[in-house]
Amino acid sequence: MLSQKTFSQFPGTSQLSLHELSRQLYADQQQRWPMLAGGVTALRNVQTRTIDCGTFSVRLQYNPKRIVSTGASVDAASIKERKCFLCEGHLPPEQQGVLYKEKFLILCNPMPIFSEHFTISHIDHIPQSIEEQILSFLSLAKDLSPHYSVFYNGPKCGASAPDHMHFQAAPAGLIPVEQEIYAHKKVKKNLNGITVSSLERYGRSVIVLEGKSKQEIELTFLRLTAAMRNIMKTNEEPMMNVVGSHQNESWRLIVFVRSKHRPSVYFNEGERKVLISPASVDIGGLVVTPVEKDFRTADAALITEIYEEISVSGETLSKIIEKL
User: Which fold has domain 3-262+308-323?
Assistant: First the structure.
């Protein structure tokens, strides 16, 4: 079955880079898979607008096709009742991917937020956990660089398939935080060549790790998750979203530290309900609104309230950094 779903392999006999193979896949799949072609066409017609929140701004994207992901039921009972849409045996007949290091399948996302949007699914049905797959995350960031960034949604932080390990990828720089980081970054400490920073006056709790050593950035990330687990008093994977990239021989991990999955307004009834369920892209500054009402009425006060509610406090963030 896997061989039938493999468009190409990396590394393989081809001399093409991973980003070149991924672009070939995206072009081919638009020709062969009507669902993706429809998603790409719909993306060209999405509306966007910018909201000034004072010390930061966000961009809203009205994208009706994303309602499946934004409104996904991710409780244990719902997951148990449905087929896993990331398992190769349940993929649409037309869908193929790039097999990455015999471990992950790079697939085109049929409901894209970006002009090129990939879901990078583990070939085995194992739970979402970046701590166990951090080396693969770092490798993907490097092998897809400098054209794509990789991002991760925790099992309780926006992943619509928390039962199946996966990352996502999009053109580098299109998640606003990737560009805005320079205006808000404040270095807190240096650990074995890895710079640890926070983002000040950004409305969210963010820790940034940067460094040239793959081994050291892996160890620092695992130290960070251990500190988060300790301070946040949990035995589970700490709630987080991660945006990773590799440029100028250096890795950068932008870690959003979360306190909850969905904001209170998500659970309101009737017209008071706001269907915003923040994952990496949304908390990174591109807020996807699949409902037109929300796109029209969302304002700075609402966005600021949502970000504050789903993030840990500044005090908690400081304790985590101190624990490092």
Answer: HIT family, subunit A (3.30.428)
